[in-house]
Amino acid sequence: MTEYDYWKIFARMPKKVTIGDITIRDGFQHEEKTISTAAKIFYAEEMILAGCREIELTNLGNPAGIPQFRDAEQVLAYFRGDRFKKNCGRRGIHPAEITFTAVTIREKAVDTAIELRKRGIGPDRILMMVSTDPEHHYANSGTTLSQYWKEVERCIKKAADAGIKMNGTVSTIWGSPITGATRLEDAVEFTKRFLELGAHDIEHADHDGSATPAQVYRYYSMILDAIPSPEVHLAHFHETKRIAPASVLAALQAGICRFEATLGGLGGQPTNFLDDCPVRGTGEYYYKDPRYVGLVTMEDLLVMIDEMGIEHGYDVDRVLWLGRQMERTIGRRLRSEAICNGRTAREGHPEFARPGLKKLIEKAGEQPGQLIPRDWAPEAVLPERLRPKT
Q1: How many CB atoms sit inside 10 A of residue 227's CB?
Q2: Tens digits of per-residue pLDDT, 243-256?
Q3: What band does 292 get if pLDDT is binned at 50, 70 and 90?
Q4: In terms of residue numbers, what domain contains 336?
Q5: Are residues 112 and 72 in the same domain?
Q6: Residue 349 covered by a domain
Q7: Is residue 239 located within the same domain as residue 308?
Q8: pTM for the structure as a whole
Q9: What is the mean pLDDT of the chain?
Q10: Which CATH number belongs to the domain containing residue 235 in this structure?
Q11: CA separation, residue 143 to residues 118, 205, 255 (Å)
């Protein structure tokens, strides 16, 4: 007989997960209008008060290329300040429990993070990224892979000396928007390289929505066979074909317990146009219409995880409210269905019950809750040709 217990079928599947919020960084980097510093601080703080404990705040790269983050220092400073600490204290939250991350693709940005750390406002964790496709890697970093690995080696050491954790991100695992198919084995090897050099954890990134659930399950099974420490691994899925939630489920089935998402599914490739002016970004967009790309949606992911009975630590209703506010901030309908349809109401919606049923039951002489005619057998008998083979 088939095993019906999901957690027995998928023995590695977690019953508790961590979901990081990357709206303020990855979400806003794709927007073609400037998001105010006040809005960035508001949403990051509210997500923390709603339960987030891993959050990306900004990108410390050159603001000439990514001007959305020219307020990086202001945002970081707020979350080291007294007002934030007081707001946390009122909710019984200890700021030390929260990991603040800034993206630092190149060494100069790492140096900036270290300097900010010395001033008491720097991030706890920074991020450097390699792509298994050399073309994609060059588009993001301007270096060869060999050159970049040497840079990573230097930066992990200097970051550790400053008390900053390094996240190593591996991209183009399931495919590249430039050269197409890639090898999963290369991504496993890159993961090992990062850890050998001293990275604290690894983000496994599907940056263009290439992943399919079957390949996601295969890859994360390979990863956990090679490096069987689930807390080291973080799943990052972009959404281009409405299949990212299925990829999340496949990652759960393989044993991954850390994920990240954005409110409204915002995000993607850094914008090349801001307000009324072209900017560098990372060049031309990889997609025909950049409005229809993004990340896995925080609101919908959280509802799915919650309704599966997996522990997550969030106030779901608060996050759904924030998702509705985000649509007002951005000025358009975003990609969450859950902010419209809400969570599944286990008590149902009695207000939609038709008033005539009770009278019809009485008139027919039936019992409340009766599902079949009283003179029928209590269980159906299948035709022999359709019965399970014993």
Answers
A1: 15
A2: 999 999 999 999 99
A3: confident
A4: 8-341
A5: yes
A6: no
A7: yes
A8: 0.94
A9: 96
A10: 3.20.20.70
A11: 28, 19, 34
